[in-house]
Design brief:
Layout (H helix, E strand, L loop, with lengths): L1 E4 L2 E4 L4 E3 L4 E6 L5 H9 L6 E4 L1 E4 L2 E2 L14 E4 L3 H4 L6 H11 L5 H14 L5 H4 L9 H14 L4 E5 L7 H13 L8 E6 L2 H7 L2 E6 L2 E7 H6 L4 H9 L15 E4 L1
Parallel strand pairs: 4-10, 4-11, 8-9, 9-10
Antiparallel strand pairs: 1-2, 1-5, 3-13, 6-7, 6-13, 11-12
Helix pairs in contact: 3-4, 3-6, 6-7
This protein binds adenosine-5'-triphosphate.
Adenosine-5'-triphosphate (ATP) binds next to helix 1.
GO molecular function: ATP binding
Main location: membrane
Keywords: ATP-binding, Cell inner membrane, Cell membrane, Membrane, Nucleotide-binding, Translocase, Transport
Length: about 260
């Protein structure tokens, strides 16, 4: 897969899979092409950028399909760093969360509201019956981010891309959001996760496998524990030197949920 801005290849020859039940992190320095990779996978590249090569979701080619034109079963859920701009400030949390349950899952308004409250409860949000009545501005950043995760999960996509979802949060709130992401992805009946970050500690708490890119090119790919124990590339060595130790789990080998290729 490549992403071009004009004639410049800002992502070049990047090739990796995310399998069902996996949580994979995409690591790279600032400007290395992580967000453009996410944008290509989501079908949300800026107008100035263009993706080439192959991006398959559940085996289906989607590289030329912007998010809004993708069939429901190959859409990709997303959680971004800025939870405030991801939500409509004028619409209550309940109405925003009801929408995917009504539109995609055909639930009645009452059943959709109940499903929204149950999902917020699973996100470890206190008093979800009250939270659904509030607007985004009436929540803390960590609460809003968990609402964004709930919103992404409500769409029941096979893959969730989380682009630096904890960067704007304090360390305690980061831990809560990481816990919720871990509990709600990477298992049967939940989406696989592509977690985009330059925080190796967060990556090691959440993910089993890591892909490291530099200047839009893959430079290292391994299990997170192996990567931490024996980093090969200079950027990975710098990341490891700056991070505390973590643990990783073995990836599971089945049909890929996502296959991005050149
Ligand atoms: N809309 C755009 N127009 C022109 N260049 C862009 C655009 N978006 C990104 N770029 C350039 O493409 C490269 C990769 O950007 P990208 O946002 O993917 O990096 P990143 O790894 O996500 O960085 P960060 O960690 O700082 O968010 C950078 O050099 C950036 O300046």
């Amino acid at each position: 897969m490549r992403v071009l801005i004009g004639t410049q290849r800002v992502v070049d020859g990047l090739s990796f899979n995310v399998f069902p039940g996996e949580r994979v992190c995409l690591l790279g320095a600032s400007g290395s092409g992580k967000s453009l990779t996410a944008g290509a996978i989501l079908g949300l590249l800026p107008a100035s950028a263009c993706a080439q090569g192959s991006i398959r979701v559940q085996g289906r080619e989607v590289i030329d399909l912007p998010a809004a034109r993708r069939p429901i079963d190959v859409r990709v859920g997303m959680v971004f760093q800025d939870s405030f701009s991801a939500l409509n400030p004028l619409v209550s949390i309940g109405s925003q969360l009801q929408e995917p349950f009504r539109r995609l899952h055909d639930l009645s308004p009452r059943a959709a509201l109940q499903a929204a409250i149950e999902l917020l409860d699973a996100m470890a949000l206190p008093d979800p019956g009250q939270i659904v009545r509030r607007s985004p501005a009436e929540l803390s950043g960590g609460q809003r981010q968990r609402v964004c995760i709930a919103l992404a999960l409500a769409c029941k996509t096979p893959l969730l891309v989380a682009d630096e979802p904890t960067t704007a949060l304090d360390v305690v709130t980061q831990a809560q959001v990481l816990r919720v992401l871990k509990e709600s992805t990477g298992r049967t009946g939940t989406p696989a996760l592509l977690f985009i970050t330059h925080d190796l500690c967060a990556a090691s708490e959440l993910c089993e496998r890591a892909i490291v890119i530099e200047r839009g090119t893959l430079v290292e790919s391994n299990r997170v524990d192996a990567l931490i124990a024996d980093p090969q590339h200079s950027f990975t060595r710098e990341l490891v030197a700056a991070a505390r130790d973590g643990i990783g789990l073995a990836p599971r080998a089945t049909e890929p949920t996502l296959a991005a290729g050149a």
